[in-house]
Amino acid sequence: MNPKIIFEDNHLLVVNKPPGMLSQGDSSGDLSLIDHFKNLIKKRDKKTGNVFLGLPHRLDRPTSGIIVLAKTSKALRRLNKIFSKKEIIKIYWVIVEGKPANDKKKLTHYLKRNRKINKSFVVNKDVKESKKSELVYRVLKKFRHYSLLEVELLTGRHHQIRAQLKHVNLIIKGDIKYGSKRTNKNGCINLHAKSISFKHPVSKVKLNLDAPFFDDIMWNKL
User: Fold this and answer.
1) Against a cut of 0.85, is the pTM above it?
2) Which one of 51, 107, 134, 192 is CB 3.0 to 4.6 Å from 154, fit for a cystine?
């Protein structure tokens, strides 16, 4: 599965990241989303110098969906402000094991990241380095053994959706790191960044962008 371009102009490149691809490079040396599109732009536009692409936010490797990239340093600075001021709406779709007790609920927890094992945990708010984390979920569809949720992130923390849902016994399908008993065949999880809404950092035009699902046995049932 290859990443797809959703929207592009002189300032922004909005793409659909497939599950299993890194947002940016790490010690594994695997091709990242950033490097893929730098190579594509360099070849497509016949650029002789380096290609600039800034990353104001990320998705976990096993997560798929929409990512906004900046093609200029000015756009990156403005996007960073948009994200830090929460002037953006991020919607995720997620398939969890079982059925939630509530069809809609706001979750508020404090999370702390353990960098050694690359995992976040719900802790008491007075724990050092804990960060307040909030999201709202609502049930979209119920299957026999699973439920489809729509999640709006109100804060952006490390593994936030995965950690908060796990804490209330809503385990994401395939997410063995956060409690699932078995992996998906492709090794990824059913968490997809479905849509994003924000004002263009330069033109100020409102953008409402949506990322289609990649081929997957559960997404294909929707």
Assistant:
1) yes
2) 134
